[in-house]
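One-letter codes give the sequence; the fold follows as tokens. Both lines appear below.
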Amino acid sequence: MKPFFSLFLLLLLLLASCGKSTKTYTIGVSQCVGGPWREKVNMEMRSAQHLYNADVKLIIRDADNDTELQGRQIDSLIRMGVDLLVVSPNENGSLTQVLRHVEAKGIPVVFFDREINTIKYHASIGGDNVVAGKAMGDYAVHLARQTVKPANRKPVVVELTGEMKNSPDKERFLGFSSVMKRHPEITYRHITTEWSYEGSYQTLKEMLAKGDEMDIVFCHSDHAAMGARQAVEEAHREKEIKILGIDGLPGKDEGLEAVQKGILACTYIYPTHGEAIVELALKILEGKPYPKHTYPAGQVVSPDNVDGVILGTQATQQQAQHLITIQDKLESYLGLYQLQRNLLMVALVTILLLIISILLIWRAVQQIRKAKRQIEQSNQEQTLFYTNARHQLRTPLTLIDGPLKELRDHGHLKDKNKELVDILYRNVQQLHDIIFGVLNFKNENTRQITDVSVQNVMKDSDVQNGIKNMLLKTDHDELATVLIVDDNKDMRQYLHTLLSANYYVLEADDGQSGLKLARESVPDIIVSDVMMPVMDGLQFCQHIKEDDITSHIPVLLLTARSTEEQFIEGYEHGADAYITKPFSAMMLTSRIQNLLQIRIKLHEKIRLQTELEKKNNDKNILELSTPDRRFMDAFKETITKNMGNSHLKMEDLGAELGMSRVQLYRKVKALTGLTPKDLLRQIRLQQSYYLLQHTDKTINEIAYEIGFGTPGYYSSCFKKQYGKYPTEVRK
């Protein structure tokens, strides 16, 4: 065993050394809505996936401003097994229940850009909206003083916000309005609308149509500010009314370009910093210190500094895009490397397995040689035993037979005594014949078994042929197999003598060994005693009926118990028939034959099972027990699943059903009267008949689909089954 242990240890060490890899965390990101600003955040997060000691796999979901959809997306991320969740909630409080479920799972939560105060979370990150509101308020005051000079009235500043449901709405309003309150020389108006281009456009258009005065309009996003600008342009007041926004994104038609072109008077770069989100998440996952709140700094962008800001953001954005490209190529190279490493591992493992297989084969050869020597020694001992037994039995029989014969022939016996001596003499002669007949038979049988055993040890093919001849019986004139289970050796011998002329007989001396033998040999019928050690006949019968391999086998119980309650108990344990002791040989053989005939009749019903079920739509037409029904359903399901496999073997079917090839053969043959191979062919042909009638597929396509290797062989089998060729059905 030492060489095997060393090889196994080497294999484990090899696998362990090749299995080491950098830790990869999965981070789920739930964005409340899309848009350019959040796309920039996503790009920055992706560019930072491989910047740190641990790699990150990002799964990003966009709820498109739909709170219910965001809740479902978060549930989906949980099921995918994310290690940490980054959430930008759509509405404050609406996701409370979902996020509490995340908390219960022990998944860390990081709020980004927005928060929900009723939920416990690990950290938050995002621009300070109060600071952003104050910065834009200060610029609005500056702009009012420098450029707005209305006659006979105060400058009017209008703030357009969303519906004040989310933290950005509330906090930006808080910052902006706090500045306005410090400047009574300015008229300040707060209008709630939708936080969108269309919402700002419609609101401002209606105000201008009514003649409302305004000099500066502050919107909570550049996108909304563009809608306000559209309304001002349509009113031809773009020179009088200044529009302010927030986001400050680079790119065509975004906030920075709008300031550069004079469309917006000012914007505020609301920080994205997606790489900071990834860094914060890794600190939490790796147990490192991290801040509870992180506020990246923003910046006011006006016509005075917009050119420099655009140059800087363009360079930063280009670098991030290049980094993503490099990472994509690196992942491709790493994938190729991993594939090559796996192939090398497979090759090494295959070599080790081949070495182990060679060693196992060598060891098996040694064991076969040892078994051969043991068999030869056992045969010699058996021959010596029968020789001694013949000698030892001949002496007492001669001493009994001789005096008895002398007394019978020459004794002066009365009629009654002479009759008794005659009876005794006849039985002694019978005993003499039986003993010497058994000894001679055993001696001859021993020599035959010795020859066969030695050949079987030398050739595995001979073992397989022997099993086929004993168990896989396909001839209609073959003998059915009877398993006798009884702890009384004389009873087993009597039953064996009674049945061996018409049946192939197997024997077991208790229920436990009988159960094992039944699973291995799958007999056609079982005759069992009730009162037995280890496992009694009732328990044995129940195990037989509950086992999918043996559930179909009829069980005939023999017992001296004859009350009605005892009969009922036997039937409740699954017995098919009951015979009380003492019994006549004719009664026993007739009952066995009757049970086997019932099983044969059941074959005919099962052969028509598919047609009857399709016609009547009834899954319980056949009176099968639950284990037999379960087995037949599983067998048909396995055939249906593998029907297109032209190389399907019975060993493969048996493996999927948890049976050996022999057990599968015996089980199917006992239930249907067909071999598994014949039943497979029949089901394939039935499926092809349906396809011919209900599809436009060619005959060749159908033949391959149902698992025939060649269309010609399929047509031949179809003709044999239905009496006509597939082309005739198609017509």
